[in-house]
Write a structure and sequence with these properties.
By secondary structure, the protein is an all-beta fold. The protein is built from no helices and eight strands. 0% of the residues lie in helices and 41% in strands.
């Protein structure tokens, strides 16, 4: 028996995130999830909104409005974008219904 190792020529399936739009219901501390598939299988996130965070557990991306805001209270935008990447490509998730103030 002969065993050899050769580099493959197959391409990875494209990174896809579903759904691509979520709503946090204007609720402080509320979270929702999207699913990432394809790409390298190793995902990370970034949020454009200062009070929305995203975390990764396997292929599940959890998007959450932080429960309280620092003082002095200011009104934050009610929309934002979470970007999911596998290191080679990006997919955006529109985040709507972000609570403006969470005392």
């Amino acid at each position: 028996m002969t065993v050899s190792t050769e580099e493959g020529s197959a391409t990875l399936p494209a990174l896809t995130v579903s759904p691509t739009s979520v709503n946090l219901g204007d609720i402080c501390g509320f979270s929702t999830s999207v699913t990432a598939v394809g790409g390298t299988g190793s995902y990370s996130t970034n949020s454009t909104h200062p009070r929305v965070v995203a975390s990764v557990a396997g292929s599940t991306i959890t998007i959450r409005r932080l429960p309280t805001d620092p003082l002095p209270l200011v009104a934050y935008p009610n929309t934002g974008v979470v970007t999911v990447t596998d290191g080679t490509s990006l997919q955006n998730v529109s985040v709507n219904g972000i609570a403006a103030i969470c005392p």
